[in-house]
Amino acid sequence: MKSISFYLVLLIFLSCGCNRTNKNEAAIKIVDNPVEEQSKFIDSQRFKVEKQTYFSLKEWNWEDRESKLTELNKEEVNKYFQAPLDSEKTYNTFYFFSIQENTPTRKSITILESDESCCNTLHLLTYDRNDKLVGKSIVAGSGGDGGWGYDAYGKFDSDSTYYFTHVELETIRDDSIGWEAEVDSLVVRFTVDRNLNFKQLSEKKFEYNKVHVSK
Fold first, then answer.
1. What distance lies between CA 122 and its chain's CA centroid?
2. Tens place of pLDDT for every residue, the chain, 215 residues?
3. 3-state DSSP: the chain helix, strand, coil percent, rounded to 5?
């Protein structure tokens, strides 16, 4: 019962005014007919989600992963990440997500990484004209385990600035009277270079408790 109550708390909290982006902007839409392929390196038919302007996994239905997204095999993971994975990521699953840019001089894609025991991470990967990986950033994430959960999301404010918000919620009391949770929120401003690599400029932290009394 505690686990169920926690996820209800997390759903209510993450649906509140903490995220000022409207629901239509945050919604993730599946592409019925992917754009025509512009390079051999990027197979547009494998990317099922439309280009993202706001990066968030909050509106994503996780039951759709296997049915609507295409999983990368081991060779494809090596092809797009172009570096050995950390040992703890060996058993994670990776899915093609969206094509952000696909031109002869630059290509940019997102790939969803799923850790079945906890969390999901959305990677933004950028390649030069020779298909070499030149940019790698985390633009969104979500997850939860037991009485803890988080949601991370962001948006490019301009070509050179990215705002990233990370919200964590942990239940510290859940009983017949109601529940209480500790909330930690971090808002980070990044500068973005031409290869979409991020460098932190500033951050703001917010901490508070959220209480609900059962009727």
1. 4
2. 434 344 434 443 444 444 445 554 555 555 555 555 556 899 999 999 999 999 999 877 777 777 889 999 999 999 999 988 877 777 899 999 999 999 999 999 999 999 877 889 999 999 999 999 999 999 999 988 878 889 999 999 999 999 999 999 888 887 878 778 889 999 999 999 999 999 999 999 998 787 767 77
3. 20, 45, 35
In angstroms, rounded to a whole number, what is the distance separating the alpha carbons of residues 182 and 96? 34
> Can you tell me the distance from the alpha carbon of 131 to that of 46, in angstroms, rounded to the nearest whole number?
17
**Which structure tokens are listed for 64?**
């759709």
User: What is the helix (H) or strand (E) element at residue 68, kind and residue range?
Assistant: helix 65-68
Which of 36, 55, 57 has its CA nearest to residue 47?
A: 36
Instruction: Look at residues 128, 131, 124, 130 and name the one whose alpha carbon lies nearest to residue 197.
Output: 124
Which residues is 53 bridged to in the sheet? none
Specify the 3-state DSSP secondary structure of 103: coil
Burial class (CB in 10 A: 0-12, 13-18, 19+), 101: middle
